[in-house]
Amino acid sequence: MTTEKTNITVETTVNAPAEKVWNFFNAPEHIVNWGSPSPDWHTTKAENDIRTGGTFLYRMEAKDGSFGFDFGGVYDEVKPNQAIAYTIGDGRKVKINFTKEGSATKLTETFEAETQNPLEQQQTGWQAILDNFKKYTETHS
Questions:
Q1: pTM for the complete prediction?
Q2: Which helix (DSSP H) or strand (DSSP E) does residue 12 occupy?
Q3: Displacement of CA 92 from its chain's centroid (Å)
Q4: Per residue in 64-102, pLDDT tens?
Q5: Where are the alpha helices (DSSP H) in the chain?
Q6: Other CB atoms within 10 A of residue 132 CB
Q7: DSSP category for residue 4
Q8: Taking residues 105-111, what's their average pLDDT?
Q9: I need a labelling partner for 119 at 20 to 30 A (CA). Which of 3, 26, 94, 126 fits?
Q10: First to last CA, the chain
Q11: Rounded to 10 degrees, what is the CA torsion of 125, 128, 129, 131?
Q12: What is the pLDDT of residue 4?
């Protein structure tokens, strides 16, 4: 028996060159500053070995200490300043494309949905994190 996977896509355009966007997206010292969906959450730890076969692990927690979880996986493909593909610890796949658009960079992130939360909630959460990334990257040097 096979089950059809549902893919969700979120995207944003960051007013910064691809090299900066790539660095801010992948450097642990930046991830801890943007990796949350709302002000009442934060990423307390980020480890990232950004290479094919490398691993990553982020710790996300509610600021009030009521809940937290690890988000991690293994990189399936890494093309610096262009694309990332990885498998999350639960087996779901994610693909991210970095597309130059003049002096800006468009990020398109497609992920396989999980089954515990409504699709709309997943899309809203992942989009909120990407929106935080855009704001952080555009306001820091």
A1: 0.94
A2: strand 7-14
A3: 13
A4: 999 999 999 999 999 999 999 999 999 999 999 999 999
A5: 18-26, 28-34, 119-139
A6: 20
A7: P
A8: 98
A9: 26
A10: 50
A11: 160
A12: 78
The tokens describing 86, both together, are 């990885």
Burial class (CB in 10 A: 0-12, 13-18, 19+), 27: middle
Distance CA(117)–CA(95), nearest Å, equals 20
Backbone dihedral angles phi then psi of residue 121, each to the nearest 5 degrees:
-65, -40
Q: How many CB atoms lie within 10 A of CB 133?
A: 22
User: For residue 2, what are its two tokens?
Assistant: 């096979």
The residues, any chain, with a CB within 8 Å of residue 139's CB and separated by 6 or more, are none
Instruction: Name the amino acid, one letter, at 88.
Output: I
Tens-digit pLDDT profile for residues 29-65: 999 999 999 999 999 999 999 999 999 999 999 999 9
Question: Nearest Cα to 121, choosing from 3, 2, 6?
Answer: 6
Cβ-proximal residues to 20 (8 Å cutoff; 6+ apart), any chain: 105, 137
Instruction: Report whether 47 contacts 27 (CB < 8 A).
Output: no
**Nearest to residue 24, comparing CAs of 41, 10, 12, 6?**
12
